Amino acid sequence: MKKLKRSARLVEMTQYLLIRPHTLIPLTTFADRYNSAKSSISEDLAIIKEVFEEEGLGELQTLAGAAGGVQYIPKVTAAGALQFIHQLCRQLEQPERILPGGYLYMSDILGQPMILNEIGKLFASVFAKRDIDIVMTVETKGIPLAYATATYLNLPVVIVRRDSKVTEGSVVSINYVSGSNKRIQTMSLARRALKEESRVLIIDDFMRVGGTIQGMMDLLQEFKATVEGVGVFVESGEVEEHLVEDYISLAKLSVVDPKSRQIKVVPGTYFKESEIRGE
């Protein structure tokens, strides 16, 4: 790459880091890329690090030594997260979202890339320090959320299917009890999709009782995998007890009254976790 002015180099380096989260990049990579001395690269990274921290864009961590380098860790400030989730709650409270059976229509929100991007960054921020190998979800609405989260964690995604596909080869299937209607349902996962003893982050769009998430946990036992975290976009507050205890939700559906068309949505458990992390 041709030698750039410092201002141009700072812009290009920032973009390089932003699209490679949780990736250790040796200083020699930047030195060779911009035909610059390591001392100049270190000064540039110090500027980028300062801006990231001041603007709440994340952390730039530097590892010293021959095997060291720099890596970008996406983070969201508590104030920024609260503002975004309050905006989501207002959108979710629109009366026309109520569906028969007291369900909530969310597909339009989950179809907006900018919103998905922010949701993914929120989950990646809260789970950043956990040792995770892969992000898991169940088809279909949780898929974009899982990919958005995995993008910021720089991890692969595995999708649990309701029905096995011949194109996936040998599968592991289990029966589970749906928390909402108590029906026996089936979910499956291709044997090649997940290595044994993997550390998994489960992401889902909605949790009423938690039967589907508990089903994924049971399925993971067949792979000798461990659940390192559970992230839920919206949880229901209408149930007294969830089947899943350890989870992080962004929003909580506290009231849904089809007769009065009233919906009340409040911030979820994300902020309790933020307090634990001292943010």
Essential attributes:
279 residues, alpha/beta, Arc Repressor Mutant, subunit A, Rossmann fold, 2 domains, six-stranded mixed β-sheet, two-stranded antiparallel ribbon, 9 helices, 12 strands, disordered C terminus
Give the distance, in angstroms, between the N- and C-terminal Cα atoms. Answer: 40 Å
With helices defined by DSSP (H or I, 4 residues minimum), what is the helix count?
9
The rough form would be described as: globular
* Biggest sheet statistics: 6 strands, mixed
Number of strands: 12
Which CATH class of the largest domain applies here? Alpha Beta
Unreliable spans are: 274-278
The CATH architecture of the largest domain is 3-Layer(aba) Sandwich
Strand content: 25-35%
Gyration radius, to the nearest Å? 21 Å
Domain Bacterial purine repressor N-terminal: 5-74
Protein name: Pur operon repressor
Domain Phosphoribosyltransferase: 108-251
Keywords: DNA-binding, Transcription, Transcription regulation
